[in-house]
Design goal:
single chain; 363 residues; alpha/beta; FAD/NAD(P)-binding domain; D-Amino Acid Oxidase, Chain A, domain 2; 2 domains; 8-stranded mixed β-sheet; 9 helices; globular
Length: 363
């Protein structure tokens, strides 16, 4: 029997396992697919909420802690596993923002570097952007991480940590609750038991709790993205315009995203989205017109009210915990979300006030 059993081996599930294992606990980690193959793989990897001033303070608190910790985490994972998550510390431009004054006021309030820059500065940094931009908001400390590589690095960390048991390709059929206490999960061919259970199953978390009669307002929200096989340097920084973005990778590839679709657990890509995303890409960087489109995919985000995640004990069932509902900011909020839950489980002083994320009173 493990000390902890985590359902969901995305970035949040794996970081939670890592935190708990480092305390000396025995941890089992189970996923219906392979590690980090759902929204953790499908996202873009910007280490900041899009238009961060439009989010509530609980999201800002988690994001601020995570943005700093990613620098240390990426280096540790590279040294530990030999797999570089490719954290890029290049900053982010936001072009055509209507509420600039609110953005700048937010930056001052939360001590986040942000400034309005003119066209000369913008085109000096990104000469291949569409012509005619007069100014932009510039956040020089915003990073991006190559999330598929982060997933591979974390999976390798799970493999080489002796007190972590990894169970992939195993769907949880039922949670086992005895006398009001969560004690394990039933798989198709086995049972796994633990002292404490943690649901970190992203968009599927609501279904798992629903089987216990608990209604969790976390729903799948599909996002489609595309990847261009561009040469290095065509775009060097994250560029956000009209609610969509371009994200460059170290090898030159450029992601464009993303759609927001409430269509249940449908992950099919569509021609309409492909056309729309291609138009977005060319509207931001016309030079992408002649660049090979390499890949088009879709993933499911765990949508939640105002994007505020649920982190902590599940009311009414002893020893059952949740870390889900990060919505569009799963990668952004992952380090802080997992550290906060680990603090609660290990009875340490929390790094962030846990009250806004508690399920009590929200479900």
């Amino acid at each position: 029997m493990s000390d902890y059993l985590i359902i969901g081996a995305g970035v949040i599930g794996m970081l939670t396992a890592r935190e708990l294992a480092q305390s000396g606990a025995d941890v089992s980690l189970v996923d219906m697919n392979n590690c980090a193959q759902e929204s953790s793989w499908a996202g873009g990897g910007i280490v900041s909420p899009l238009y961060p001033w439009r989010y509530s303070e609980p999201v800002t608190a988690l994001a601020s802690w995570s943005q700093t910790s990613y620098i240390h985490l990426a280096q540790l994972l590279l040294e530990e596993t030999g797999i570089d998550p490719e954290l890029r510390l290049k900053g982010m431009f936001m072009v055509g923002v209507d509420d600039e004054e609110e953005a700048l006021a937010w930056g001052r309030k939360f001590h986040r570097p942000m400034e309005r820059v003119n066209a000369d500065f913008l085109y000096q940094k990104e000469p291949n952007l569409v012509a005619g931009c007069e100014s932009a908001l510039w956040m020089p400390e915003v990073a991006s991480i190559r999330n598929p590589r982060l997933g591979r690095s974390l999976r390798r960390s799970m493999e080489i940590t002796p007190n972590i048991r990894l169970v992939e390709q195993s769907k949880v059929d039922n949670l086992i609750v005895e006398n009001g206490r969560a004690v394990g999960v039933k798989l198709s061919d086995a049972e796994l038991r633990a002292e404490k259970l943690i649901i970190a199953a992203g968009a599927w978390s609501g279904e798992l709790l629903g089987s216990l009669g608990i209604e969790l307002p976390v729903e799948p929200v599909k996002g489609q993205m595309m990847l261009f096989k561009a040469p290095p340097g065509l775009i060097s920084r994250v560029v956000l315009m009209g609610g969509r973005y371009l994200i460059p990778r170290n090898d030159g590839r450029i992601l464009v995203g993303s759609t927001l679709e409430r269509v249940g657990f449908d992950k099919q890509i569509t021609d309409d989205a492909k056309e729309s995303l291609r138009k977005t890409a060319l509207d931001i960087c016309p030079a992408l017109k002649d660049i090979e489109l390499e890949h088009h995919w879709a993933g499911l985000r765990p949508g939640s009210p105002e994007g505020v995640p649920y982190i902590g004990a599940v009311p009414g069932i002893e020893n059952l915990y949740l870390n889900a509902g990060q919505y569009r900011n799963g990668l952004v909020l992952a380090p802080a979300s997992t550290r906060l839950l680990a603090d609660l489980l290990l009875e340490r002083t929390p790094v962030i006030d846990p009250q806004p994320y508690q399920l009590q009173g929200r479900v």
